[in-house]
Amino acid sequence: MRHHQLLPLSVIGVSLVLALTQATPTITSSASPVATLLPTAPSADAQAGPIDDTQCNIEELEQANDSQLYTILQELVLRTEFFQHFAVDLEQTCPLSKEDSEQEEEEEFECAGGPAEPDPLLDAFGMAEEEPAEPACHVDTSAQEFQADNPFMTTATSSTTSSPSNTPHTQSQALYELSKQGFQSKEQAGAFQWKQQTDLVEPKPLGAKNKENQDTPVTSSTTSKQSAKTTNIKKEEEDDCALDIDADHNNGQQQWLPEAFWMDMCSHVTAGGTTKIVNLALNPERNTGYNGTHLWNAIYQENCIGIASTNSNTNTNTQDKSVLPFVDDNNKEVQPRCFEERVLYRLLSGLHTSTTLSIAKHYYMPSKRKGRINWEPNPQYFMERFKDHPEYIRNLHFSYVVLLRALKKATPFLYNYEIRTGNIVQDEAATILLKRLLDSSILQSCSSVFGAFDETLMFRQELENTNESDAIALQQSFKGVFHNISSILDCVQCQQCKLHGKMAMLGYGTALKILFIKPSALQLERNEIVAFINTLAKLSQSIREVRELTHLYWMREQEKQQREIDKATLNATTVSSHAESIPITKAGWDSWNTVDGAIGAIAALERQKLISVEQEAQLVTLAIEQRDPVLLILTKHYFSSSPDDSQADLVKLRDLLQARGLLDGTVTAVTVPVDPLDYPDAVVVGSGLAGLAAALNILDRGGYVVLLEKEHLLGGNSNKASSGINACCPGQNNNTSSKSDALAAADSVEIFTNDTIRSAGTAARPDLIQVLVSNSESAVEWLQSRVGVDLSLKAQLGGHSSKRTHRPSNGMAGAEIIYGMQKAVRKYEKKGQVRILVDTKVTQLITEESDLEADKFNEKTVVGVEYENMKDPGTKVTLMAPHIIMATGGFASDRRPKESYLSQYRPELLQFPTTAGAFSTGDGIALATSLGADTASMDQVQIHPTGWVDPTDPKNPSKTLAAELMRGVGGILLNDKGQRFCNELGTRAYVTDKMLAHNWKYYMTSKWDANSEIPTFALVLSSAASSDAKKHVDLYSHKGLLKRLEGVQALADWMGQPVKTVASALNKYQADADKGKDEYGKTTFRGQFGKDLTKEIFYAGTVSPVLHYCMGGITIDTDGNVLDTQKRIISGLHAAGEVTGGVHGNNRLAGNSLLECTVFGSLVGRNLPLQERQVTEQQRVKATSGDEPASNSPSSDSKKRQVSREELAQHNTPEDCWVAIHGVVYDLTEFAEEHPAGPASIRELAGQDGTEAFAAVHNQNILEDFDEDRIGILV
C-alpha cells in the first residue's frame, strides 16, 4: 500500500502528530487552494459546509466556539491552578529497537544541552538568540510547590497509569508485535479471559472481512487461546457491555465485552517513577524545531492499521476528501475505510493540524536582535501546509465535535466532581467555570454541536451482520492501535514536544473512554480531566487560529505584491545584466547625478575663462557620451556648486584635468582607459577561498578583476583548513555496506540543514543556512570539475548525522583547494583579465551619494577603494570599480587591548592561542562598518578543543589545528591525571567546555578568567586510528607535533604518569567499547587499541583549546549584499566568507567554513552584473594568446639527467633551493615565495628528499605544474 504524509515534519516538533501521518490518503481536489475551507480565503463558500461523519456544519461549530466555548475554555486552562498543572513522565524509554534507541539518545544529547548548545531551529529561519538559557525543547517544571501535597502521585496504579512501564519492547519489530499481541498488561488480559465468545476467531484489521489465514496487524494471543471455549452470556450482565447499543440494531443480540475493556484506554500514556508536575501555562505549545521524521517512519513500518473491508459503515453518506480510501502500490483505489478506522484517523489528523497551527502561530521566538518582544506567527508556513489540503482543517473541526460530544456525555460526572487544590478561591473559580462550560450545551447557540457526533454508530456494523467475532476484533484493534500510538510518544526527544503530545493523547484517550463507557460506570482521574479540558481548549483555539493566520497571510501577500511592484519599477531603471539577482546600478561613479555635476563643473570652468569653448565642448562630449571615469571622478571630488567655492578650487580642477590629458587633443584620444583593469568589474579584497571563488566566477564570465591581498602569499586561513568541506551528495553514496555509508546514502538537504541549525543554535539565520546547504553539492562538484580538486574521501565529523565532509585522498583539503583555485585564477593573468596585488592593504572604501530608493538602499554607494603597498606605506592609490567584494576573514588574531573586536566583545579570550593567521585582524569588518554596515554574532568566537602545542615552542600564540578527524578516527583525550573526561565525538563546544572545566573558576562559574592558564591535554591515537588518518599523522609527525610511542610504558613515560594509571584508563575504554557505550554517552568506537597494550603503537601529542573561528561579522543578505543597520543594501558592497556574520549562528559546524567560502564567494561572483565593454584589438589578441598552451614541457635533457644525492645536497640555500619529490629533482627557488603555506616549509627541505613531507599534504598530480622547474632524476 502506498501511504502519503499528512504534513511535512521538518520543523514540526510536537509529539502525538507522529501517528498515522504516513497513512494519509492521496488527496485530489478541483477546488482552489484554501478556498474550500479557510475562512478568509477568496471564496463564497469558504465559511460554510457540513462536517462529515457528524450532524452539524462549520458555521454552527464556529458560532458556538466564538460565542461561548472559547472564552470559557481559555479561562479554565490559563487562569485556574487545577487545569494548569499536569502530571507527566518525560523520562520513559523509547519502545523501539536498540538501534533506533541509540539514534534517539544521540538526538537527546543535542536537545538537552545547555546554553552553549541550544536546540536547533530547522525551517525556523530567525529564532531567539541570547535570552533563553535553556534550549527550545526544554520543559519548565518549576511548579515544585505543588509537589508537597501532590494529588497526582496517588494514582500510580490507577487506570490511567496501570500499564507497567517496564513492558519489554526490544525486538526490531516491537511495535508490530505490540499491535499483534493486543494486550499489554496482565490485568487487561485477565479481564478478557473470563468472558470470551465461543466463536471468537483470530481478529482482523479494523473493519476487515473474516477470511481464513488473513495476516493482521492487531491480534490477541489471549483471545486466540480461548477461541475453543464456550462461555454463557447471562442477561443480568447486560449492563457490562462496552457500548450502550440498542438491541434493536442487532436483532436483540448483544456483543459482550467487559466494562473494564475501555477503562484502560489511557494506560499507555505512562506515568512512572520519574513523573513531574508541569505548569502547562508556563510551557505553551510552540515551535521548537524538533524533527521527528524517524518516528513517523517507525509508525509507517510497524504500525499499519490495515485496510477496511466492504462492510464499512456507509451511514454517513460522505463526500469529504478527508475520508477518501487508501490507495495501493499501483495508486489504485482499494476498499474504503471502515467508519471506526476513519474516526481514529480523523481524530489524529485533527490533532496534527492543531499542532501545526500552534507552531505557525508561535513560530518566531522573541529576539532582541530581530526586535521581537513576543512570539510571532509565520503565515507562510501555515499556508504552505494547508493551501492544498483544506480537508485537514475539516478534520480539526471533526475532532472538536467528537470531544464536545464526550464533554456532553461526561456532564453528570464532571458536574459533581470536586476540584481541590488547597486554594479555596481558585477551586471555587474553577468549579464555576467548569459548570458554566457544561451548561453551554443547553444554549441555543451551542446545543447542536454537543450531539452532532453519534458514537453508537461505531462497532455497530459487525453486530448488525451478527458477526460478533468481528465486533470484538474491531474493538480490540481500535484500542490496540491507540495504545501503540500512545507508546511511541516516549520516543519523542524534545521534552516540550513530548509534554504536549502526551497531554493531548491522554485527552483523546479520556474522550474515547467517556464515549465507550456507560455514564453510570464512568470514573475519571484528575490527570485525565486536566488533559481532556486542555485538549478541548487546544482544539478551540486552533479553530480561531485558522482564521487569524489566513487573514494575516493575505495581508502579507498584498504587501508582498506591492513590494514586487516597487522592485520591478526599480529594476526598470537599473542597467544590469543580472538585476533580478542583485539590484545595483550600472556603476556608481557614472550615475546621471554624477554626470550632471560634471556638466556644472565644466560650465563653471568656462565661465571663469579657465578653459576655452572648444575645451568645454570636448569635456561635455566626454561626460555625456563617453562618461569618461577620470573626468567624472575629478569633477565629483574637486568641484562644488556652492557659492563659497573659491577661484582656487576651479584652478586646481583645471590643472588636474590638464595633467590627465583631458584638455589636450581630440575626444578620441581619451575615450576609455586603455587597460580594463584600470576600471575592473570588481575589486576583490582578500585572497582566501571566498575571494578566489568570487574572482574565478567573474573571470569565467569574461569579467575583469583586481585582487588585493595584504599578505605576500595567497590563500589566507583557507589554506590551513584540514578537515574538509561539507556537502550533501546522497547520489554519490552507492556503497552502503557499512552503517555510516548507509547514513550517507540517506543524507538529505533537510538533515544537513537540521545539523547546521542545531549547531547554530538561537542565532541561526535559516535563510542563509538554506543557501549554504542547498548549494553544497554543486559547490563540491564545481571544485572537482572546474578547479580539479580531488575530494573523493568522506568522513563524519562531530555534530553531523552523516558522512558528508569531503577531503582529498592524498593531501589536506585547504591546501589542495587553494592551490587549485590559485592556479585557475592566475591563468587569467596571461589573458589580461586579472591583476593580483600582494602586500597591499585597503585603507578606505570610496563612496558617492546613492540615487536609489532610500527605504531599500543606503544613502551611500561604494564606487572604489583606496589602498597602499605594505612595503611603501603612506602612498595611497585609488582604484575605482562598480563592485567591491570583501573577503578579508575574521579577527581571531587581533589582540590589541582596547581597539580589537576581541577586546570589545570577548576580552576574556585575549590570552587564548589561535589557529588563525596573524593577518586575521578584522580589517574588512572595520571598513564596512565605517559606512554603516550592520554586524551579527560578534560575541560568538569558536574555541576549537584541539590545537597542537609545539613542544619546541609551547608558548607560541599561533597553533596548528589538530583536525577534528584525529578524534573522528578514534583518538582519545587524557587529562593531566591520565584520565578520560568526555565524549571525544561531541560537538566542539561540548568538548571545549569539558576541557575548560578542569579550571576551578570555570567549573564553578562557566566563565573563563582571562588571567587563568590555558589547560593542556594528551591526544592519543592507536595504530589503527593513525592508519585511518595517515596523511594527517604523517604531517603532524613531520612537524614534530605527534610522537610515535611503542607500548603503554612509553606512553605513560611521555605523559609523566604511572603506567598503571594510563593502562587502567585504556583498559576501561576498551571495556566500554565492547559494551557499545561509555559513561559519557559515546557509542562509536573507531580505531580501538590492541588487546596487548605493551605491544601497541601509540601516536600522542599535546593539545589545548584554541581560538579557531569568528562567527561574527558583516551582515549580508542571501545574495551576499552588505546590509546597513536598517537592513538596507549598501549598493556596490558585497561580502563572503568569515568576514560575514550570521551564516553559522552561535557555533560553526565542522566543515562548513570552506563550504561557506565556496558557496557565497561563487554566488557573488556569479550574479553581480558586468560592464559592457568595447574590446580593443590589442585586448583581443592578449586574451587569445593567453589560451595558447605554454611550451613549458621539460627538455629531453631534464628528463634524462641524473642527479646524485651529493649534488642535490649542495643546493640547500634560499637562493638555490633544490628539492627531490617522488624521485624527481625540482628547482623550487622561485616557487618558495609563492608557496601558499609560506617559503619556510619549502626551504627547510632544500637539498633533501622531500617526498614524505610533500605526500603528507599534497596530491602527486600537483607536480604536473612544475615540469618547467624539473632538473632531473634522483639516483
UniProtKB/TrEMBL annotation:
Residue spans of biased composition, Basic and acidic residues class: 1197-1209
Cofactor or coenzyme needed: FAD
Cleavable signal peptide: 1-23
Cytochrome b5 heme-binding domain boundaries: 1200-1275
Comp. bias regions, Low complexity: 154-172, 219-231
Compartments (UniProt record): Endoplasmic reticulum membrane
Ranges where the record places region Disordered: 96-119, 153-172, 205-239, 1174-1209
UniProt topology in membrane: Peripheral membrane protein
A GO molecular-function descriptor: FMN binding
Record's keyword annotation contains rRNA processing: no
Record keywords: Disulfide bond, Electron transport, Endoplasmic reticulum, FAD, Flavoprotein, Glycoprotein, Membrane, Oxidoreductase, Redox-active center, Signal, Transport
Family annotation (InterPro entries): Cyt_B5-like_heme/steroid-bd, Cyt_B5-like_heme/steroid_sf, Ero1, ERO1-like_sf, FAD-dep_OxRdtase_2_FAD-bd, FAD-oxidoreductase_2, FAD/NAD-bd_sf, Flavocytochrome_c
Record-linked SMART domains: Cyt-b5
SUPFAM superfamilies according to UniProt: Cytochrome b5-like heme/steroid binding domain, ERO1-like, FAD/NAD(P)-binding domain, Succinate dehydrogenase/fumarate reductase flavoprotein, catalytic domain
Domain of life: Eukaryota
GO cellular component: endoplasmic reticulum membrane
GO-annotated biological processes: protein folding in endoplasmic reticulum
Main location: endoplasmic reticulum
Acidic residues bias spans: 101-110
Family assignment from sequence similarity: Belongs to the EROs family.
Name of the protein described by the UniProt record: ERO1-like protein alpha
Organism, scientific name: Seminavis robusta
